[in-house]
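Appendix C: a fully annotated inverse folding record. The material below is reproduced so that readers can follow the format used throughout the book. The structure is listed first as C-alpha coordinates, followed by the designed sequence.
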Protein backbone atom coordinates (compact mmCIF):
# COMPACT_ATOMS: atom_id res chain seq x y z
CA UNK A 1 0.00 0.00 0.00
CA UNK A 2 2.79 2.37 0.82
CA UNK A 3 4.43 1.76 -2.52
CA UNK A 4 1.21 2.48 -4.39
CA UNK A 5 0.81 5.80 -2.56
CA UNK A 6 4.32 6.82 -3.46
CA UNK A 7 3.76 5.98 -7.10
CA UNK A 8 0.53 8.02 -7.17
CA UNK A 9 2.18 11.04 -5.54
CA UNK A 10 5.04 10.89 -7.99
CA UNK A 11 2.66 10.76 -10.95
CA UNK A 12 0.73 13.76 -9.62
CA UNK A 13 3.92 15.74 -9.13
CA UNK A 14 5.12 14.95 -12.64
CA UNK A 15 1.79 15.94 -14.18
CA UNK A 16 1.69 19.11 -12.11
CA UNK A 17 5.17 20.01 -13.26
CA UNK A 18 4.06 19.53 -16.86
CA UNK A 19 0.81 21.53 -16.35
CA UNK A 20 2.19 24.52 -14.38
CA UNK A 21 4.14 26.16 -17.24
CA UNK A 22 1.11 25.86 -19.49
CA UNK A 23 -1.11 27.50 -16.83
CA UNK A 24 1.37 30.31 -16.29
CA UNK A 25 1.53 30.86 -20.04
CA UNK A 26 -2.30 30.97 -20.28
CA UNK A 27 -2.59 33.46 -17.40
CA UNK A 28 0.02 35.70 -19.01
CA UNK A 29 -1.87 35.57 -22.31
CA UNK A 30 -5.14 36.51 -20.60
CA UNK A 31 -3.44 39.44 -18.83
CA UNK A 32 -2.04 40.76 -22.11
CA UNK A 33 -5.41 40.40 -23.86
CA UNK A 34 -7.31 42.17 -21.09
CA UNK A 35 -4.74 44.91 -20.90
CA UNK A 36 -4.93 45.50 -24.66
CA UNK A 37 -8.73 45.54 -24.66
CA UNK A 38 -8.84 47.78 -21.60
CA UNK A 39 -6.36 50.15 -23.15
CA UNK A 40 -8.39 50.25 -26.38
CA UNK A 41 -11.64 50.88 -24.47
CA UNK A 42 -10.04 53.66 -22.42
CA UNK A 43 -8.58 55.27 -25.54
CA UNK A 44 -11.96 55.06 -27.25
CA UNK A 45 -13.67 56.70 -24.26
CA UNK A 46 -11.07 59.45 -24.08
CA UNK A 47 -11.28 60.23 -27.81
CA UNK A 48 -15.08 59.85 -28.03
CA UNK A 49 -17.13 62.91 -28.91
CA UNK A 50 -20.13 64.22 -27.04
CA UNK A 51 -22.63 62.54 -29.37
CA UNK A 52 -20.81 59.18 -29.16
CA UNK A 53 -20.84 59.34 -25.36
CA UNK A 54 -24.57 60.13 -25.40
CA UNK A 55 -25.20 57.17 -27.73
CA UNK A 56 -23.13 54.91 -25.44
CA UNK A 57 -25.13 56.04 -22.39
CA UNK A 58 -28.41 55.30 -24.18
CA UNK A 59 -27.35 51.86 -25.52
CA UNK A 60 -25.80 50.56 -22.29
CA UNK A 61 -28.33 52.46 -20.11
CA UNK A 62 -25.59 53.99 -18.02
CA UNK A 63 -27.42 57.24 -17.31
CA UNK A 64 -29.48 59.87 -19.07
CA UNK A 65 -28.44 60.80 -22.58
CA UNK A 66 -28.25 64.50 -21.79
CA UNK A 67 -25.93 64.01 -18.80
CA UNK A 68 -22.51 65.61 -18.68
CA UNK A 69 -19.64 63.84 -20.42
CA UNK A 70 -17.73 63.44 -17.12
CA UNK A 71 -20.69 61.62 -15.58
CA UNK A 72 -21.00 59.35 -18.63
CA UNK A 73 -17.25 58.51 -18.48
CA UNK A 74 -17.45 57.68 -14.77
CA UNK A 75 -20.44 55.39 -15.34
CA UNK A 76 -18.62 53.72 -18.26
CA UNK A 77 -15.60 52.96 -16.05
CA UNK A 78 -17.89 51.44 -13.43
CA UNK A 79 -19.50 49.36 -16.16
CA UNK A 80 -16.08 48.07 -17.23
CA UNK A 81 -15.23 47.12 -13.64
CA UNK A 82 -18.53 45.29 -13.18
CA UNK A 83 -18.27 43.44 -16.50
CA UNK A 84 -14.60 42.49 -16.90
CA UNK A 85 -15.30 39.85 -19.56
CA UNK A 86 -17.66 41.49 -22.07
CA UNK A 87 -17.59 45.12 -20.90
CA UNK A 88 -14.73 46.24 -23.15
CA UNK A 89 -16.27 44.66 -26.25
CA UNK A 90 -19.68 46.20 -25.52
CA UNK A 91 -18.16 49.63 -25.03
CA UNK A 92 -16.15 49.39 -28.24
CA UNK A 93 -19.20 48.14 -30.16
CA UNK A 94 -21.30 51.00 -28.80
CA UNK A 95 -18.67 53.51 -29.79
CA UNK A 96 -18.50 51.94 -33.28
CA UNK A 97 -14.84 50.85 -33.13
CA UNK A 98 -13.50 47.27 -32.88
CA UNK A 99 -9.77 47.80 -32.79
CA UNK A 100 -7.72 50.92 -33.13
CA UNK A 101 -9.92 54.00 -32.67
CA UNK A 102 -9.02 57.11 -34.61
CA UNK A 103 -10.81 60.26 -33.46
CA UNK A 104 -12.63 62.07 -36.24
CA UNK A 105 -11.53 65.68 -36.48
CA UNK A 106 -14.42 68.10 -36.88
CA UNK A 107 -14.32 70.55 -39.69
CA UNK A 108 -13.93 74.08 -38.48
CA UNK A 109 -17.04 75.98 -39.61
CA UNK A 110 -16.28 79.61 -40.42
CA UNK A 111 -18.17 81.96 -38.15
CA UNK A 112 -20.54 84.37 -39.78
CA UNK A 113 -19.37 87.90 -39.37
CA UNK A 114 -21.98 90.26 -38.02
CA UNK A 115 -22.52 93.64 -39.69
CA UNK A 116 -20.93 95.39 -36.70
CA UNK A 117 -17.77 93.29 -37.06
CA UNK A 118 -17.69 93.99 -40.79
CA UNK A 119 -17.93 97.73 -40.10
CA UNK A 120 -15.11 97.49 -37.56
CA UNK A 121 -12.94 95.58 -40.06
CA UNK A 122 -13.65 98.16 -42.77
CA UNK A 123 -12.81 101.00 -40.40
CA UNK A 124 -9.57 99.27 -39.42
CA UNK A 125 -8.62 98.76 -43.08
CA UNK A 126 -9.40 102.42 -43.78
CA UNK A 127 -7.22 103.47 -40.86
CA UNK A 128 -4.37 101.31 -42.12
CA UNK A 129 -4.69 102.85 -45.59
CA UNK A 130 -4.65 106.35 -44.12
CA UNK A 131 -1.56 105.53 -42.03
CA UNK A 132 0.24 104.24 -45.12
CA UNK A 133 -0.74 107.36 -47.05
CA UNK A 134 0.42 109.55 -44.19
CA UNK A 135 3.82 107.93 -44.24
CA UNK A 136 4.06 108.29 -48.02
CA UNK A 137 3.03 111.95 -47.88
CA UNK A 138 5.59 112.63 -45.16
CA UNK A 139 8.31 111.12 -47.31
CA UNK A 140 7.25 113.07 -50.41
CA UNK A 141 6.61 116.47 -48.79
CA UNK A 142 9.62 118.72 -48.01
CA UNK A 143 10.65 119.49 -44.46
CA UNK A 144 9.65 123.17 -44.65
CA UNK A 145 5.85 122.43 -44.95
CA UNK A 146 3.92 122.54 -41.67
CA UNK A 147 2.51 119.41 -40.07
CA UNK A 148 -1.06 120.73 -39.82
CA UNK A 149 -1.66 120.33 -43.55
CA UNK A 150 -0.53 116.73 -43.38
CA UNK A 151 -3.03 115.88 -40.62
CA UNK A 152 -5.98 117.57 -42.34
CA UNK A 153 -5.79 115.85 -45.72
CA UNK A 154 -6.20 112.27 -44.49
CA UNK A 155 -9.13 113.24 -42.25
CA UNK A 156 -11.09 114.36 -45.31
CA UNK A 157 -10.32 111.09 -47.07
CA UNK A 158 -11.50 109.17 -44.03
CA UNK A 159 -14.87 110.88 -44.00
CA UNK A 160 -15.43 110.29 -47.70
CA UNK A 161 -14.51 106.61 -47.49
CA UNK A 162 -16.62 105.92 -44.40
CA UNK A 163 -19.86 107.62 -45.45
CA UNK A 164 -20.04 106.99 -49.20
CA UNK A 165 -20.11 103.39 -50.54
CA UNK A 166 -19.03 102.45 -54.08
CA UNK A 167 -22.56 102.46 -55.53
CA UNK A 168 -23.27 105.91 -54.11
CA UNK A 169 -19.99 107.15 -55.60
CA UNK A 170 -21.07 105.91 -59.03
CA UNK A 171 -24.52 107.52 -58.70
CA UNK A 172 -22.94 110.78 -57.55
CA UNK A 173 -20.53 110.76 -60.49
CA UNK A 174 -23.39 110.14 -62.92
CA UNK A 175 -25.46 112.95 -61.37
CA UNK A 176 -22.47 115.28 -61.50
CA UNK A 177 -22.01 114.58 -65.21
CA UNK A 178 -25.73 115.08 -65.84
CA UNK A 179 -25.76 118.38 -63.97
CA UNK A 180 -22.55 119.63 -65.56
CA UNK A 181 -23.93 119.37 -69.13
CA UNK A 182 -26.88 121.84 -68.81
CA UNK A 183 -24.68 124.36 -67.01
CA UNK A 184 -22.67 124.90 -70.22
CA UNK A 185 -25.74 125.54 -72.37
CA UNK A 186 -27.70 127.40 -69.66
CA UNK A 187 -27.14 131.00 -70.85
CA UNK A 188 -28.59 130.50 -74.34
CA UNK A 189 -31.54 128.43 -73.13
CA UNK A 190 -32.34 130.83 -70.32
CA UNK A 191 -32.41 133.67 -72.81
CA UNK A 192 -34.86 131.76 -74.99
CA UNK A 193 -37.08 130.89 -72.07
CA UNK A 194 -37.21 134.52 -71.00
CA UNK A 195 -38.18 135.52 -74.52
CA UNK A 196 -40.94 132.88 -74.57
CA UNK A 197 -42.23 133.73 -71.12
CA UNK A 198 -42.50 137.46 -71.80
CA UNK A 199 -45.55 137.29 -74.15
CA UNK A 200 -47.61 135.46 -71.52
CA UNK A 201 -47.15 138.34 -69.11
CA UNK A 202 -48.40 140.81 -71.71
CA UNK A 203 -51.86 139.17 -71.95
CA UNK A 204 -53.67 141.53 -69.59
CA UNK A 205 -57.31 141.11 -70.80
CA UNK A 206 -57.48 137.48 -69.67
CA UNK A 207 -56.31 138.40 -66.19
CA UNK A 208 -59.06 141.01 -65.96
CA UNK A 209 -61.82 138.57 -67.01
CA UNK A 210 -60.75 135.86 -64.54
CA UNK A 211 -62.13 137.46 -61.35
CA UNK A 212 -65.59 137.85 -62.88
CA UNK A 213 -65.71 134.19 -63.93
CA UNK A 214 -64.60 133.02 -60.48
CA UNK A 215 -67.24 135.17 -58.81
CA UNK A 216 -69.92 133.75 -61.08
CA UNK A 217 -68.78 130.25 -60.27
CA UNK A 218 -68.92 130.99 -56.53
CA UNK A 219 -72.46 132.39 -56.82
CA UNK A 220 -73.59 129.37 -58.84
CA UNK A 221 -72.04 127.02 -56.28
CA UNK A 222 -73.85 128.80 -53.43
CA UNK A 223 -77.18 128.53 -55.27
CA UNK A 224 -76.61 124.84 -55.90
CA UNK A 225 -75.78 124.28 -52.22
CA UNK A 226 -78.96 126.07 -51.12
CA UNK A 227 -81.07 124.05 -53.57
CA UNK A 228 -79.38 120.81 -52.54
CA UNK A 229 -79.96 121.60 -48.84
CA UNK A 230 -83.67 122.24 -49.50
CA UNK A 231 -84.13 119.08 -51.57
CA UNK A 232 -83.34 116.58 -48.77
CA UNK A 233 -85.88 118.24 -46.46
CA UNK A 234 -88.60 117.99 -49.11
CA UNK A 235 -87.65 114.42 -49.92
CA UNK A 236 -87.73 113.42 -46.25
CA UNK A 237 -91.18 114.98 -45.75
CA UNK A 238 -92.56 113.21 -48.81
CA UNK A 239 -91.08 109.93 -47.62
CA UNK A 240 -92.68 110.35 -44.18
CA UNK A 241 -96.08 111.05 -45.75
CA UNK A 242 -95.79 107.98 -47.99
CA UNK A 243 -94.75 105.79 -45.07
CA UNK A 244 -97.68 107.02 -42.96
CA UNK A 245 -100.15 106.32 -45.74
CA UNK A 246 -98.71 102.84 -46.23
CA UNK A 247 -99.03 102.09 -42.49
CA UNK A 248 -102.64 103.30 -42.40
CA UNK A 249 -103.55 101.15 -45.41
CA UNK A 250 -101.93 98.10 -43.81
CA UNK A 251 -103.70 98.62 -40.48
CA UNK A 252 -107.05 98.96 -42.26
CA UNK A 253 -106.48 95.78 -44.24
CA UNK A 254 -105.86 93.72 -41.07
CA UNK A 255 -108.83 93.59 -38.69
CA UNK A 256 -106.73 92.72 -35.63
CA UNK A 257 -104.59 95.88 -35.79
CA UNK A 258 -105.51 99.26 -34.32
CA UNK A 259 -103.62 102.52 -33.73
CA UNK A 260 -102.53 103.40 -30.20
CA UNK A 261 -101.58 107.04 -30.56
CA UNK A 262 -99.75 108.27 -33.64
CA UNK A 263 -96.63 106.13 -33.53
CA UNK A 264 -97.84 102.79 -32.08
CA UNK A 265 -99.97 99.90 -33.37
CA UNK A 266 -101.66 97.21 -31.26
CA UNK A 267 -102.70 93.65 -32.14
CA UNK A 268 -105.98 92.61 -30.48
CA UNK A 269 -105.42 88.85 -30.85
CA UNK A 270 -102.08 88.73 -29.03
CA UNK A 271 -102.03 92.10 -27.23
CA UNK A 272 -98.67 92.98 -28.75
CA UNK A 273 -97.75 96.63 -29.36
CA UNK A 274 -95.26 97.72 -31.99
CA UNK A 275 -93.91 100.75 -33.80
CA UNK A 276 -96.02 102.13 -36.66
CA UNK A 277 -93.66 100.95 -39.37
CA UNK A 278 -94.52 98.92 -42.48
CA UNK A 279 -91.53 96.58 -42.22
CA UNK A 280 -92.04 95.89 -38.51
CA UNK A 281 -95.78 95.24 -38.95
CA UNK A 282 -95.21 92.93 -41.93
CA UNK A 283 -92.61 90.91 -40.06
CA UNK A 284 -94.98 90.54 -37.10
CA UNK A 285 -97.98 89.60 -39.26
CA UNK A 286 -96.02 86.86 -41.00
CA UNK A 287 -94.45 85.66 -37.76
CA UNK A 288 -95.21 82.33 -36.07
CA UNK A 289 -96.76 83.81 -32.94
CA UNK A 290 -99.36 85.92 -34.73
CA UNK A 291 -100.28 83.21 -37.23
CA UNK A 292 -100.74 80.64 -34.48
CA UNK A 293 -102.93 82.98 -32.43
CA UNK A 294 -104.99 83.94 -35.48
CA UNK A 295 -105.54 80.32 -36.49
CA UNK A 296 -106.66 79.48 -32.97
CA UNK A 297 -109.05 82.40 -32.98
CA UNK A 298 -110.53 81.41 -36.30
CA UNK A 299 -110.80 77.77 -35.29
CA UNK A 300 -112.85 78.63 -32.18
CA UNK A 301 -115.29 80.82 -34.11
CA UNK A 302 -117.53 77.78 -34.67
CA UNK A 303 -118.02 77.43 -30.90
CA UNK A 304 -119.45 80.95 -30.62
CA UNK A 305 -121.53 82.33 -28.93
CA UNK A 306 -121.08 79.75 -26.16
CA UNK A 307 -117.29 80.21 -26.20
CA UNK A 308 -115.83 83.67 -26.73
CA UNK A 309 -112.43 85.35 -26.31
CA UNK A 310 -111.58 86.15 -22.72
CA UNK A 311 -112.77 89.66 -21.79
CA UNK A 312 -109.42 90.44 -20.15
CA UNK A 313 -106.87 91.41 -22.79
CA UNK A 314 -103.99 90.15 -20.63
CA UNK A 315 -105.21 86.55 -21.20
CA UNK A 316 -105.08 85.94 -24.96
CA UNK A 317 -104.49 82.19 -24.45
CA UNK A 318 -107.84 81.73 -22.65
CA UNK A 319 -111.51 81.42 -23.74
CA UNK A 320 -114.63 82.45 -21.85
CA UNK A 321 -117.63 80.13 -21.58
CA UNK A 322 -120.88 82.13 -21.48
CA UNK A 323 -122.86 79.05 -20.39
CA UNK A 324 -120.89 78.23 -17.24
CA UNK A 325 -119.12 81.61 -16.94
CA UNK A 326 -115.72 79.96 -16.57
CA UNK A 327 -112.30 80.56 -18.21
CA UNK A 328 -111.00 77.68 -20.35
CA UNK A 329 -107.67 77.15 -22.07
CA UNK A 330 -107.67 78.00 -25.77
CA UNK A 331 -107.41 74.37 -26.83
CA UNK A 332 -109.88 72.25 -28.77
CA UNK A 333 -109.50 69.27 -26.44
CA UNK A 334 -110.27 71.34 -23.35
CA UNK A 335 -113.28 72.94 -25.10
CA UNK A 336 -114.73 69.56 -26.09
CA UNK A 337 -114.10 68.21 -22.59
CA UNK A 338 -115.91 71.20 -21.10
CA UNK A 339 -118.86 70.74 -23.47
CA UNK A 340 -119.26 67.07 -22.42
CA UNK A 341 -119.15 67.96 -18.71
CA UNK A 342 -122.46 67.65 -16.77
CA UNK A 343 -122.45 71.26 -15.58
CA UNK A 344 -122.31 72.55 -19.15
CA UNK A 345 -125.00 70.09 -20.30
CA UNK A 346 -127.26 71.10 -17.41
CA UNK A 347 -126.95 74.85 -17.89
CA UNK A 348 -126.96 74.86 -21.70
CA UNK A 349 -130.80 74.74 -22.15
CA UNK A 350 -131.26 77.39 -19.47
CA UNK A 351 -128.71 79.60 -21.18
CA UNK A 352 -130.41 79.12 -24.55
CA UNK A 353 -133.80 80.12 -23.09
CA UNK A 354 -132.20 83.18 -21.54
CA UNK A 355 -130.56 84.07 -24.83
CA UNK A 356 -133.89 83.73 -26.66
CA UNK A 357 -135.58 85.90 -24.04
CA UNK A 358 -132.77 88.45 -24.33
CA UNK A 359 -133.15 88.52 -28.09
CA UNK A 360 -136.92 89.01 -27.77
CA UNK A 361 -136.44 91.76 -25.23
CA UNK A 362 -133.87 93.42 -27.46
CA UNK A 363 -136.20 93.17 -30.45
CA UNK A 364 -139.11 94.62 -28.44
CA UNK A 365 -136.87 97.40 -27.17
CA UNK A 366 -135.80 98.15 -30.72
CA UNK A 367 -139.45 98.16 -31.85
CA UNK A 368 -140.42 100.49 -29.01
CA UNK A 369 -137.59 102.81 -29.83
CA UNK A 370 -138.66 102.79 -33.48
CA UNK A 371 -142.30 103.49 -32.47
CA UNK A 372 -141.27 106.29 -30.16
CA UNK A 373 -139.11 107.88 -32.83
CA UNK A 374 -141.91 107.59 -35.39
CA UNK A 375 -144.41 109.16 -32.94
CA UNK A 376 -141.99 112.00 -32.25
CA UNK A 377 -141.62 112.66 -35.96
CA UNK A 378 -145.39 112.69 -36.40
CA UNK A 379 -145.86 115.09 -33.54
CA UNK A 380 -143.19 117.41 -34.90
CA UNK A 381 -144.76 117.33 -38.35
CA UNK A 382 -148.21 117.95 -36.89
CA UNK A 383 -146.92 120.79 -34.75
CA UNK A 384 -145.29 122.38 -37.78
CA UNK A 385 -148.52 122.11 -39.77
CA UNK A 386 -150.58 123.51 -36.89
CA UNK A 387 -148.17 126.41 -36.43
CA UNK A 388 -148.41 127.34 -40.09
CA UNK A 389 -152.21 127.22 -39.98
CA UNK A 390 -152.44 129.33 -36.82
CA UNK A 391 -150.20 131.95 -38.30
CA UNK A 392 -152.41 132.11 -41.38
CA UNK A 393 -155.69 132.31 -39.30
CA UNK A 394 -154.59 135.16 -37.02
CA UNK A 395 -155.92 138.65 -37.95
CA UNK A 396 -153.54 141.31 -39.04
CA UNK A 397 -152.54 143.74 -36.41
CA UNK A 398 -154.10 147.20 -36.61
CA UNK A 399 -151.86 150.02 -37.38
CA UNK A 400 -151.79 152.82 -34.88
CA UNK A 401 -153.32 155.97 -36.20
CA UNK A 402 -152.35 159.29 -34.83
CA UNK A 403 -155.37 161.56 -34.00
CA UNK A 404 -155.70 164.58 -36.22
CA UNK A 405 -155.64 167.84 -34.38
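Designed amino acids, in order:
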Amino acid sequence: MGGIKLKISRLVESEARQFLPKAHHFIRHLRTCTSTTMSEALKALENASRRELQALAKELQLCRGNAKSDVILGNAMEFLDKHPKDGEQLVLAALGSRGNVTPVAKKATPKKETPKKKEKAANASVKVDTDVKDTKSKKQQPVEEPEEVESKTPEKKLTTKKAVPKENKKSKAASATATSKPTTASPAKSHKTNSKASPSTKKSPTSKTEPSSTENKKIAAKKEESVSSKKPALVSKKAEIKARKAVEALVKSVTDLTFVGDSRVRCSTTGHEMKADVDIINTYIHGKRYLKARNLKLSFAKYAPMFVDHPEESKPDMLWCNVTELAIARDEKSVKKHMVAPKYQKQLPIWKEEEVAKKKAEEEAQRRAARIEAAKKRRLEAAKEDGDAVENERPAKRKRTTPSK
